[in-house]
Design brief:
The protein is α/β, with parallel strands linked by helices and 403 residues long. It is built from twelve helices and 16 strands. It folds into two domains: 7-188, Rossmann fold; 191-353 and 372-402, Rossmann fold (3-Layer(aba) Sandwich), CATH 3.40.50.2020. The protein has helices at 20-29, 84-100, 135-139, 147-158, 171-180, 191-200, 223-233, 265-268, 284-293, 312-318, 338-341, 354-365, and strands at 10-14, 39-43, 49-53, 71-75, 105-109, 162-166, 185-188, 213-217, 239-247, 253-257, 272-280, 300-308, 325-329, 348-352, 377-380, 400-402. The chain has a nine-stranded mixed sheet, with helices on both faces. The chain has a five-stranded parallel sheet with strand order 1-4-5-6-7. Strand 13 (325-329), helix 11 (338-341) and strand 14 (348-352) form a beta-alpha-beta unit. The protein starts with 9 loop residues before the first strand and ends with a strand. The relative contact order is 0.11.
């Protein structure tokens, strides 16, 4: 791939009009033009979508070549008014519009990669797994498509050359996207964001070397992530506990201490505990895990999750008093809406990652890094008891967003 030398060679757009997340990433990369001045999201009367990259109406010298040599970056996030199926199709049309008008490279930045939960199909070759697939696992997908693989192939066919996402949970998804995009797939894991916030805010309390702090992995799949978080925090006296879960139904799960857990319940009694996971939808598993952890009488129990899908069911379940506070990212920006948060706004803090993503985009495309070294901004409701400026010294933390 030919890497552009300057930001003028890069055009950043969103997958729907006036997407604040895309606008913030574009600004952080250094794009001066407003996204609305770069692309028009046309919709015909018959509801068909037709994006159009805007050019000089009087220039007849470069028809179909307005984007020659350019790199187009599509920032794709979820929306309250459009389905993910709709947004996925829009991504493909925007990518094809870019390529049909000369773009050298199209990059898709999709923090919460669509169809990642559909990471297996009805045959053995449909999805890499860390376990041996038996007939019962194959039967779960009998008659269904291997949707993650199909999405990757359709993006490639539409003109996407590179994909960037955040904290994808699936070995199968990472494998198929690496194959389809010939290694041009980045799965960014936000270790540094979580580590910075845990060390420089008052969300948890602990001693100088981590005394009184415990990190919890809810299952063996999260063990590697939480162990790396442990290393990034560099707190030698902190504890690590591993749980085990067994699904007995779609929303039924049994929790217990894993036999390979490095700490016992007695080891972490009275600690501030942070339970990490990559995503939450219904909240069934996390609430069960947190209720289970309440047996050790923690001082405080924080649930940290990268992708927060704020369903009605999830909001109701996670209002459970077993969870003292929820720490999440805005990979699905709707989580910042106070109506979406509902009662959870009293115990929720959102870390806005647009600046961090902009740094990653600049690195991949060979652009100069933006002047700001901030990783994130803090979005917290004033209903949260920790909403006070004393907890966020300017010398330690990125800016606090007031709402």
């Amino acid at each position: 791939m030919n890497r552009p030398a300057t930001s003028s060679d890069v055009i950043i757009v969103g997958n729907f009009s006036d997407d604040p997340f895309a606008i913030d990433v574009a600004y952080a990369v250094g794009q001066a033009e407003d996204i609305a001045d770069l692309i028009s999201m046309k919709m015909f009367a018959n509801t068909e979508f037709c994006p159009r990259f805007i050019s000089d109406e009087q220039d007849f010298s470069a028809i179909g070549h307005h984007l020659d040599g350019k790199t187009v970056v599509i920032i794709s996030t979820s929306s309250r008014i459009m389905s993910r199926n709709n947004l996925a199709m829009r991504n493909m049309f925007i990518a094809r519009a870019a390529k049909d008008n000369g773009a050298a490279t199209v990059m898709l930045v999709e923090p919460d990669l669509y169809y990642s939960a559909q990471d297996r199909g009805p045959r053995l070759e449909h999805g890499s797994t860390s376990f041996e697939r038996d007939a019962h696992d194959l039967k779960k997908f009998d008659g269904q498509p291997f949707s993650a693989g199909l999405y990757a192939e359709m993006l490639k066919l539409a003109g996407v050359d590179r994909v960037m996402t955040v904290h994808n949970h699936s070995v199968a998804v990472e494998d198929v996207f690496n194959k389809v995009f010939d290694g041009c797939f980045q799965n960014l894991v936000p270790y540094e964001i979580y580590a910075d916030y845990l060390k420089h805010s008052d969300i948890v309390s602990y001693g100088r070397d981590g005394e009184g702090l415990a990190l919890c992995a809810p299952d063996k799949g999260a063990r590697g992530f939480v162990k790396e978080m442990f290393a990034r925090l560099d707190l030698p006296k902190a504890k690590f506990v591993l749980l085990d879960k067994e699904r007995t139904g779609e929303r039924d799960v049994e929790i217990k201490l894993h036999a390979e857990s490095e700490s016992t319940f007695e080891d972490i009694r009275g600690h501030d505990v942070v339970l990490f996971d990559d995503m939450v939808r219904t909240g069934s598993t996390v609430v069960k895990s947190c209720e289970f952890m309440r047996r050790v009488e923690p001082n405080k129990l924080v649930f940290a999750v990268t992708h927060f899908y704020a369903s009605d069911e999830g909001r109701e379940k996670m209002a459970n008093p077993a969870i003292d506070e929820i720490l999440t990212l805005n990979t699905m920006p709707t989580v910042q809406n106070r109506d979406v948060q509902g009662r959870l706004r009293k115990k929720m803090v959102v870390l806005k990652i647009e600046q961090w993503l902009a740094h990653a985009v600049c690195e991949v495309l060979g652009l100069p890094r933006s002047h700001s070294d901030e990783l994130y901004q803090i979005d917290m409701s004033s209903k949260n008891p920790r909403f006070h400026r004393d907890a966020y010294p300017n010398t330690q933390l990125p800016g606090l967003v007031d709402f």
